[in-house]
Design a protein that fits this description.
- The complex is a heterodimer of chains A (about 70) and B (about 475).
- With about 70 residues, chain A is mainly α.
- Chain A has 2 helices and no strands.
- With about 475 residues, chain B is α/β, with parallel strands linked by helices.
- In chain B, about 35% of the residues lie in helices and about 15% in strands.
- In chain B, helix 5 runs parallel beside helix 6.
- The relative contact order of chain B is 0.15.
- The chains are: A mainly alpha (about 70), B alpha/beta (about 475).
- At the A-B interface, helix 1 and helix 2 of A face helix 9, helix 10, helix 11 and helix 12 of B.
Chain lengths: ~70, ~475
């Protein structure tokens, strides 16, 4: 997923969708880090992983109740 | 300077009559009174309870009731673990005070039954992820070797308390290095256990598929002694493993002759940000263990840099699921500055990214299993640098920093952090890491013991008047 042209608008949309009341300073920090974050996440999409199953476990039998 | 007590030496002293638990507890309380205001290790000290437990431990020993090596030992619990006799905060204003009220986590219950003297609840990074925040009503933890340096997190208080003798052992939690970083920066041992080895019921979660509760103590031996008490299945934790436990000290004197040590150079030894002294100290661990009879095997564990990212993404997304209802409300600023922005940043990941991280995890686990089929352990640096300056975290800088801890949380492997020397300029502790295959904790303790029988880095204690206070 390439870094979008308008990083600010993308980050604003994602933050608003999550309902996070970030300050202007916090928002700017997220904007500043977003291109690097996307670049790092995109490295997860490597050829070697193409046919891997995710490391997720679901059991149809509910586990013992904790509380 | 006297050699600081270990659990091993204190347990022997209790049984020889050289010391009583009340005396050990009194020593620990004196250390707390002298140092804690400056170092910020404890959220709450339970002095009366500790003295009562110590008296009981002494009475039991006198009556021939021996519950094992933790009996009568001053011990600390990260304040993310529920305790029936003290509140639990997770170092946050957010955690519902009703959570954890009036009951013990599995591990609290187990150390209590083993006769440990619980001195109180220890400081952590907020929800095991944030950073010290001057605007919140919690102590600011300081590195006991230099006050202007970080003690590491998230189990900061346990690291400080063990290093300074406020406790002789304690528990931390490790999702991306939170047992091992404070152990490394404060200069003692810390064992991140195999995922599922220690039940987590009664522990506030951070990353559900990564979290582990582990021992922190001066020596590898002491970590084994603690693990003997806390390991083992409990049905209240659905992720707790049914794999049988073992006596983690049974083979502790077995040495390292014939063991095969894998050394993955890529990323772990050649990263541009790796401090040269940290690298050399780790090489010294490898050389020393080789001199004791272990074999060095060069191995490849590709894409470990991506493993760090996969661990971070997994941790943040799982944490965000837990926190979103509070974060999306008017409670945003009740979180500390670091915790809210670090956890909230997970909103920038997609669901597909999370699943892809789990697909990468499957692939990386296969690569690691292939490596471990040929070696007994890996030896790598624990951190890429000695304790960094004590200041608010630059969250964007953290994105690209290397982590030698996170890949092993992603794998769920056990890893033992061991003191490996001191930096030449500031005298800060250095640390290396021995990593094992799943459930190989006993082997790690044994190798750590071998290293610590020929070195005394783990027995170094910081001065009570540590420098750096003027800048802190």
């Amino acid at each position: 997923m390439p870094v979008p042209d308008n990083v600010e608008a993308t980050v604003r949309a994602l933050v608003d969708a999550a309902g996070l009341p970030v300050s202007d300073e916090e928002f700017q920090s997220l904007v500043d880090g977003y291109p690097t974050l996307r670049e790092l996440v995109d490295k997860l999409y490597i050829e070697e992983v193409r046919y891997e199953e995710p490391a997720l476990i679901f059991t149809p039998v509910p586990p013992a109740k904790g509380e | 300077m006297t050699t600081p007590r270990t659990i091993e030496s204190a347990a022997a002293a209790l049984r020889s009559g050289e010391a009583s638990s009340v005396e050990l507890t009194g020593e620990a309380l004196e250390r707390i009174a002298a140092l804690d205001e400056r170092l910020g290790a404890f959220i709450a000290v339970n002095e009366a309870g500790a003295l009562q437990q110590a008296a009981q431990a002494d009475a039991d020993l006198a009556a021939g009731v021996d519950r094992g090596p933790l009996q009568g030992i001053p011990f600390g619990l990260k304040d993310i673990l529920a305790t029936k006799d003290q509140p639990t905060t997770a170092n946050s204003l957010i955690l519902d005070p009703a959570w954890g009220e009036g009951y013990d986590s599995v591990v609290s219950e187990r150390v209590r039954e083993a006769g440990a003297v619980i001195m109180g609840k220890l400081v952590l990074s907020e929800f095991a992820l944030g950073a010290p925040d001057e605007e919140k009503p919690f102590p600011i933890p300081r590195n006991p070797w230099r006050l202007d340096r970080s003690p590491g997190g998230s189990s900061s208080g346990t690291g400080i308390a063990v290093s300074t003798g406020m406790v002789l052992g304690g528990l931390g939690t490790d999702t991306g290095g939170s047992v091992r970083f404070p152990a490394a920066y404060c200069g003692h041992s810390g064992l991140k256990v195999t995922y599922g080895r220690v039940p987590k019921w009664g522990c506030v979660p951070l990353g559900y598929t990564l979290d582990s509760i582990g021992p922190m103590a001066r020596s590898a031996h002491d970590c084994g002694a603690i693990l003997n008490v806390i390991a083992g299945h409990d049905p209240r934790d659905p992720t707790a493993s049914a794999e049988p436990t073992e006596d983690y000290l049974a083979g502790v004197e077995g040495g390292v002759a014939g063991l095969r040590m894998g050394v993955p150079r890529e990323y772990f030894f050649d990263h541009e940000e790796l401090d040269e002294e940290v690298r050399l100290a780790t090489e010294a661990v490898i050389d020393t263990l080789a001199g004791l009879g272990a074999e060095v095997v060069e191995v490849k564990l590709p894409h470990s840099d991506i493993a760090k990212e996969a661990n971070t993404l997994t941790m943040l997304c799982e944490a965000f699921a837990y926190h979103r209802m509070d974060m999306g409300s008017d409670r945003w600023t009740e979180y500390g500055k670091a915790a809210r922005i670090m956890i909230g940043r997970a909103a920038l990941y997609s669901a597909a990214d999370y699943i892809q991280a789990q697909r990468f995890r499957s692939w990386y686990a296969k690569q690691a299993a292939r490596v471990m089929a040929d070696v007994d352990v890996l030896v790598v640096p624990m951190t890429h640098e000695p304790a960094p300056a004590h200041k608010p975290p630059d969250i964007n800088r953290r994105l690209t920093m290397p982590s030698y801890a996170g890949p092993f949380n992603l794998l769920g492997y056990p890893a033992l952090a061991l003191p490996s020397g001191f930096s030449s300029e500031l005298g800060l502790p250095l640390s290396a890491q021995i990593v094992g295959a799943p459930f190989a904790e006993a082997l790690l303790v044994r190798m750590g013991r071998a290293w610590q029988q020929v070195t005394d880095w783990h027995l170094q204690a910081p001065p009570d008047d540590a420098p750096g206070g003027e800048e802190a």
